[in-house]
């Protein structure tokens, strides 16, 4: 084999090794990051799981019991989404730090409350002391389309400062419900 062919093979081997390294890094990054799950993907996963568990329920609850439980949970979820007006479209969770008594996770959450879209990013610090678990929200970032009302922008800013997710969801639910009523009323008069 002449020297030029040998060098061409060496170059090809190095290029392939570099590609393998890049793909491995990309795979590791993807494995650490949580995936965004849409409602359709969740339903596909549930159906796939149902198919896998058919015939494998020996020693566990029967398949009909599991199916009934799944239908009950689906009905409960549907009721809660209808009752609160919240429809979550995606969620991801990435563990940033984990020790024996402390866990830090980064969450991303998107959805709509009635017709108002929102996107949240925050870190959740969970600390465990003996049997007590406490959780603290930090680095809260809320993105909403609040072009209609400056009070929404002020509310979002205050909520981000305090990191109070419960107040955010309660207030957003009420505001979005009345926003829908106002929108329908104005459409009626047009």
UniProtKB/TrEMBL annotation:
Keywords: Coiled coil. One of its GO terms (cellular component) is chromosome, centromeric region. InterPro entries: CENP-P. One of its GO terms (biological process) is CENP-A containing chromatin assembly. It holds the Pfam family CENP-P. It comes from the Eukaryota. Residues 6-40 form a coiled coil. This is CENPP protein. It comes from Dicaeum eximium.
């Amino acid at each position: 084999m002449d020297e030029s062919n040998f060098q061409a093979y060496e170059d090809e081997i190095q290029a392939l090794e570099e590609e393998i390294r890049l793909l491995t890094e990309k795979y590791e990054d993807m494995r650490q990051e949580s995936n965004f799950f849409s409602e359709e993907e969740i339903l596909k996963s549930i159906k796939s799981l149902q198919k896998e568990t058919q015939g494998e329920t020996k020693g566990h609850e029967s398949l009909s019991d599991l199916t009934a439980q799944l239908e009950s949970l689906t009905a409960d979820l549907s009721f809660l989404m209808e009752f609160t007006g919240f429809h979550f479209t995606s969620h991801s969770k990435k563990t940033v730090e984990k020790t024996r008594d402390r866990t830090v996770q980064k969450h991303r959450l998107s959805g709509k409350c009635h017709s108002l879209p929102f996107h949240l990013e925050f870190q959740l610090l969970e600390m465990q002391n003996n049997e007590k678990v406490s959780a603290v929200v930090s680095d809260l970032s809320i993105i909403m389309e609040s072009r209609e009302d400056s009070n929404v922008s002020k509310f979002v800013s205050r909520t981000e400062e305090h990191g109070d997710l419960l107040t955010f969801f309660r207030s957003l639910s009420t505001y979005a419900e009345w926003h829908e009523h106002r929108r329908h009323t104005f459409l009626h008069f047009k």
